[in-house]
Amino acid sequence: MMNGTLLTEFLILGFSEMPHLQVPLFLGFLCLYMAAISGNLLIMVTVSASPALHTPMYFFLFNLAMVDILCTSTILPKLLDTMVGGRMISYWGCMAQLYFFTWSLGAELLLFSAMAYDRFVAICCPLHYGAWMGPRVCAFLAGLVWSISLTNTSVHTGLMLRLPFCSSNVIEHFFCEIPPLLKLSCAPTQLNEAMAFAADVFLAVGNFSVIILSYGFIVASILRIRSAEGKRRAFSTCSAHVIVVTMYYSTVIYTYIRPASSYSLNKDKVVSVIYTSVAPTLNPLIYTLRNKDVKVALRRLLFCC
Length: 305
Description:
This protein has 305 residues and is mainly alpha-helical. It has 10 helices and 3 strands.
């Protein structure tokens, strides 16, 4: 027995129902992981080495890159291992994966709100930007992001540790996530589901509402700009953030707003791929390819090297 559970390890199904696609899937996820790590590390190095990027916007982008590295490094190495035969994961390994993934998920959702607030102040209240987004404010917001997400994952992991798993040990997913784990418990999971729902309402729905409200004010402010060039530049600074936020929040809300009993193996795995693998890989591409300042800093960094 291990902490109230009769199971000492779990079997992760992964994508075993598609044996004919194992090789292309393995190569695809390997490329996603390499792209996510290299792209986000490049952003971190570029922001750190470029004084022109030492601004609140890129400070939060630096934090986002750290979160994306944490997320992909928690999920993808084990996924690649399952695709070459290592489908077993220990009980504590599963809980650790749940802990770090939930931590990165909460931090990413909160960081999007912090980035939306930064754009709101920059566009709607430019005269107050220096005071409202000073170094102390940015450090406070970043500390709030990491501490709230850490508290959130501690609560969910703690609640999961109290559940006994004494029936099936087969996880119908490619990693240890809350919904498929709750389906395996032989004890009532109402408290876990209620806390997951509450966290989703606060972290996903609540933050998404704040972001939508912020961009409502931003769009209204942009439309008051007289010059077409001014409008274009203002929209370009926000469009990348809107793309990422829409993709990320929609998939997270879909996954966690429902009871565990409605979990669907194939459909939910596809949705999870978006916020565990695709979004962390696309973030550095979206923010660099659509951002003139980052592209200039990258050229200078590569030229100097």
